[in-house]
Write a structure and sequence with these properties.
CATH topology of the largest domain: Rossmann fold
Shape: elongated
Distance between the termini: 37 Å
Strand order of the largest sheet: 4-3-1-5-6-10
Number of domains: 2
CATH architecture of the largest domain: 3-Layer(aba) Sandwich
Strand content: 15-25%
Radius of gyration: 28 Å
CATH superfamily of the largest domain: von Willebrand factor, type A domain
Order of helices and strands: HHEEHEEHHHHEHEEEEHEHH
Number of strands: 10
Helix content: 40-55%
Structural class: alpha/beta
Largest sheet: 6 strands, mixed
Length: 325
């Protein structure tokens, strides 16, 4: 398809030069040709132009097929690993519903897999945070390594502390982007993904600082909210054989409620683009994929084949019009 694009462009350039030379001649001589023949040529040129446009539109749009080596992603993922991310709905409502953090991990795994399937190169760094934040993985472009870290290292039990601080997450995100390799600093498409239920247990000024810190990154942000909005969820107490017995009371309450407003604010904190999605939505991965790749489609510009086709058609029609005049 690339050779076809080159052919169209070369033809367009040659014909444009021919038209330019004709119209800049000191004394343009009318080309002696029968009018019916000229009209026939115009009809042929018009039909050819429409045919080429049809072929271009119906063919494979390879102008939107990206190479892995060009403009890779630099994706920093911050996972909320506080105890509230262990919450599930009561088994009487729906059995076998995974905890919030597992739902969030599933979304991230599918999103990264879809990027890889589309030929996108992604360098990924992973952060886990509660009231403090830890870098679980530095920048790595190995999909298998990233999958293993998400599968085995992203778990609330591993950090062992309670509370949720988006301020700590924002500081850690700033740290990992400072460690970004130089070639990604200049050419990488930077993206922050925050996976949380939105419950910030710190003071309000701490959340405001997190918003300010994210704004300074000038990076696109996706806020993935994990947690059902239409049914109460709590942290389960399991029996000897792993069976559900009751919900654990935390800070005097049994149920934990996702904070939609907080996650929406985080998504819109940066001066870059922002997206709020819910982990339980069926189209969450597709929405994230559309958002992440949208800017690249715009920077690739218009389809070269289509532009060349229309340009060649215009030149052919101009030549025939000049002959008939």
């Amino acid at each position: 398809m690339q050779s076809t694009n080159s052919y169209f462009l070369a033809t367009l350039i040659i014909m444009s030069i021919a038209v330019f030379i004709y119209w800049t001649m000191p004394t343009r001589r009318r080309i002696v040709i029968e009018r019916p023949v000229a009209l026939g040529a115009l009809v042929v040129a018009t039909l050819s132009g429409f045919f080429l446009c049809y072929v271009s539109l119906s063919g494979e749009r390879t102008a939107y097929t990206y190479h892995r080596q060009e403009n890779p992603f630099a994706i920093a993922i911050a996972f909320d690993l506080s105890p509230s991310m262990l919450a599930i709905p009561h088994p009487s409502f729906q059995e076998d519903v995974a905890p919030r953090y597992v739902r969030g991990k599933g979304v991230i795994r599918d999103f990264l897999r879809r990027l890889d399937d589309n030929g996108e190169l992604a360098y990924v760094s992973i952060i886990g945070f509660t009231r403090q934040a830890d870098i679980l993985m530095g920048w790595d472009d190995n999909p298998a390594q990233v999958r293993d870290i998400i599968e085995y290292a992203v778990a609330p039990e591993l950090l062992g502390s309670s509370g949720t601080s988006f301020e700590a997450a924002a500081k850690s995100l700033d740290d990992v982007f400072r460690l970004l390799p130089e070639h990604l600093q200049a050419n990488g498409r930077k993206l922050i993904i925050i996976v949380s239920d939105g419950e910030d247990t710190m003071r309000s000024s701490s959340f405001a600082y997190a918003e300010e810190a994210l704004a300074l990154t000038n990076t696109d942000i996706i806020a993935v909210q994990a947690g059902l909005l239409d049914h109460s969820e709590g942290i389960p107490i399991l029996g000897e054989y792993g069976e559900f017995t009751d919900f654990q009371a935390i800070r005097g309450t049994t149920y934990t409620v996702p904070d939609v407003a907080a996650m929406t604010s985080l998504a819109n904190a940066s001066v870059g683009r922002g997206l709020y999605v819910r982990a339980e939505s069926t189209d969450v991965v597709q929405n994230m994929l559309n958002f992440a790749t949208k800017s690249r489609r715009q920077t690739n510009g218009a389809d070269v084949t289509l532009l060349s086709t229309f340009g060649m058609f215009t030149v052919l029609a101009s030549l025939c019009a000049a002959i008939i005049r």
